[in-house]
Amino acid sequence: MQRPIAILDSGVGGLTVVKEVMRQLPREKVIYFGDTARTPYGPRPSDEVVRFTQEIVSYLMQYKPKMIIIACNTATAAALEDIRSMVDVPVVGVINPGARAAINQTKTGIVGVIGTVGTVRSRAYEDALKRLNPNIHVVSLACPLFVPLVEQGNFRSKETMDTVRESMEKLKDIPLDTLILGCTHYPFLSETIQEVMGTGVKLISSDNETAREMSTILQESGKLAHGPELPIHQFFCSGEPKMFKRIAQQWLGEQIELTPVVWQIPKIG
Prior knowledge:
6-stranded parallel beta sheet
């Protein structure tokens, strides 16, 4: 039996990574955990984020995953190394893949990063970018109002446009050509963010690069899934499931309709 890939996030944001994993590796079984009862993670102390992440990983390990993806920038910044020391399977975060994509994209060497308070405070993206190119100029901005919009399913509205415009006003006068969406929730707002920033700024989401890194690791270790049957994916959330399900179906589209989904509300925290 093929072992699954476990993907976790503070809420629905990691579904952006799930969608890309399903696109690139359709034979891989995904088990996904969204901690919707305790979202957002961004304003929380890092030790609390570490504890929450450890609890979710402990829960997911009963399904014997062959890999864990921390599809949350805040949790990646705070807990990646702790989780790697906790389990005996590969653990992939979303920060380094996003940084690599931004370095490959920028022409001016001026890169913006928007993220949660916790991610920006950690300077994880700045450190990752400067490891790749010490001459890169990084401008970071916390946008704490974005995650609640996404968790409410409010992707395109006047409120969303007003919030994005006001939150990102400080970046408008900076000549950046590349902007990292440093939270997996933010691609849900990418159309609005692009409209505010203009077509001259390339938006970078880590979902594509994270799935590609995951694929490389599995291929090199001989653990890619094979066989004619498509997998049955499993989704879990810690909070009220109706909104989570609606957003998941809207974002993943046919894939969520074509495969049976097991919904459970784990008791954690």
